[in-house]
Amino acid sequence: MRTPPRWITDHGPEHSQWYIDRFRAMAADGADLGGEARLLDAMVAPCSRVLDAGCGPGRVGAELAARGHIVVGVDVDPLLIAAAEVDHPGPRWIVADLADFDLPAAGMGEPFDAAVIAGNVMTYVASGTEQRVLARVAAHVRVDGVVVVGFGTDRGYPITEFDAHAAVAGLTREHRFATWDLRPWRDDATFAVTVLRKVD
């Protein structure tokens, strides 16, 4: 039996609802929640197919859909997916574990032009499955498509390990920044946004 993601094992049963409520309140207060989507939107053609991997309650995927992209969001937490369906109708939201999801097997065989893994998702997947998660995401992206990943560097997943996992998954690093608004990367940065490209 596969180890559950840390999103589930490291938090109590109330955490998912707290997370949903937090971002609903931030949206109601007018907080800027679209930074990740703006970056990806600038990197892809209009009406691109985008995979929101670890989509949570859908804020990134919803913003991408509002910008005209075709979005499919995947998350292991049914409560977060239910919130995405309520708050952001339009994109397709799917409950699945990123370590073994297979959209072609579910009838969605067309590859994606890009994928985004935001919100510290890579630090919430089950320990030891990070490389497989990146490989499964890469498997859903067309050759020469981009995968943009952001997570805190102080959350137990060394950036050097991430780079090695991405390379094994067939993803080549093109850029790295310290924030989603493209501030320069530095070795002591507490956050990393990495732009990867799928190679042959």
Please, could you describe this protein's structure?
This protein is 32% helix and 24% strand. The chain has 200 residues and is an alpha/beta fold. It has one domain: Vaccinia Virus protein VP39 (Rossmann fold), CATH 3.40.50. Helix 3 crosses helix 4 and helix 6 (130-139) crosses helix 7 (159-168).
Work out the number of β strands.
Answer: 7
Helix content: 25-40%
> So what's the overall shape?
globular
* Total tally of structural domains: 1
Distance between the terminal alpha carbons, to the nearest Å? 32 Å
Beta strand %: 15-25%
For this structure, the quaternary state is single chain
CATH overall fold name: Rossmann fold
CATH superfamily: Vaccinia Virus protein VP39
Would you list the SSEs in sequence order as H and E?
HHHEHEHEEHEHEE
Work out the helix count: 7
Comma- or semicolon-separated keywords:
single chain, 200 residues, alpha/beta, Rossmann fold, 7-stranded mixed β-sheet, 7 helices, 24% strand, globular
List the helices and strands and how they pair.
Elements: H1 6-9, H2 15-28, H3 35-43, E1 49-53, H4 59-66, E2 70-75, H5 78-87, E3 92-95, E4 112-117, H6 130-139, E5 141-152, H7 159-168, E6 171-177, E7 191-198
Parallel strand pairs: 1-2, 1-4, 2-3, 4-5
Antiparallel strand pairs: 5-7, 6-7
